[in-house]
Amino acid sequence: MTLLGPLPALAQQQTDADAAQEVDQWSVARDLVIGEPPDWLTTVSDLLVAADGSMYVVQQEERLVRKFASDGELTLSIGRRGRGPGEFLDPRTVGWLADTLMVADWRLRRISAFSPSGDVHYTITTGVRASVRHLPLAVLTNGRILAEQSWNNQEVVEGRETVRHLLLLDREGATVAPFADLAFGIFQAMVEIVVPSGPTLTFTKHPFSNSDLWDVDPEGSGVVVVTQADLDPDNPQFSVTRLAPSGREEWNRSFRYTPQPVTDAMARDTIAAVTEMFVSYPFFGEQVPHGQIERAVRKAIRMPSVLAPVSAVVAGRDGTTWIRREAVGEQHPAWMVLDEQGVWIAQLRMPAGLRVHQADRHHVWGVELDELDAPRVVRYRVRSAGER
After folding, report:
1. What topology does CATH give the domain 8-262+304-383?
2. How does pLDDT run across 309-337, given as a tens digit for each residue?
């Protein structure tokens, strides 16, 4: 990762073995599920929690945001399909700017501002004066728009495009400043499957991705970046950095770790899972033999020798940072929790199928899939050692 702000004032290095002996041991217990039959949910692209514990759930396919009370009761629907004020075509992310709800639409390249009760306040269209194609992500506390420069999938897979660019835009989409550069590393796989009408190219996230990761906190007051794509095998360590809205580095931490090898079983199970994913698509499964799809998947997925040390990062609601470690082959991957200064304070394990969207010292909110692959919003209560 290339940081594009002043040098850090604070840095620290810890090792897995040393720090794990000192940190608190936490656990989680699920205490809320939203989306059980017959109240199904569709694809959840993002989730935001309010101060009173209510939840705003972005439903990308339905082009709306649903609000649920802290007990799971549906209380409000915001938006609908369209291009007008308060309408969406591709809602993806949601965050707070003070007490205003900010929803980013990638297709319209704009951010819509709502009151907590769903009234439309205003719209920021970032494509008006955009000098580069981009995806709007969030409004930061300094009023700037955090965006990601668009990339070409095939160029990324082929190694011709190697860097992800985070940008700061003004409210008309003009680039104010670069924010951070992140290495793609192993990021996507390009699967070429020949159907009767000819070859098709499909891009999917690489199951052994080692790309640099980032997340913006719900209030827009900071961005956390994990650097891991270009690690030195003789000195294995990843770094975690928190950036202020200006791009200034607030703190940086480095963590040494023991690389975990990619085993034959991991490779075999992963190839099988990705193959079944493609077989489940009628376009492929009904036209192409299973073995042909499997060969295409094997050709596309380049197997690294070791797992990336970090598989997800979440910027917490209370200044904490949550880091999921190696997840392939784990039913309950380990998570590290860093405090407001980036010090490792706790570790815990959570289900592999849980995609965490929000977290603090008391609760974790995320999405799990049921046995029919339907999404459910879940909340877990965080318990410290000895707490029942």
Report:
1. Neuraminidase (2.120.10)
2. 999 999 999 999 999 999 988 899 999 99
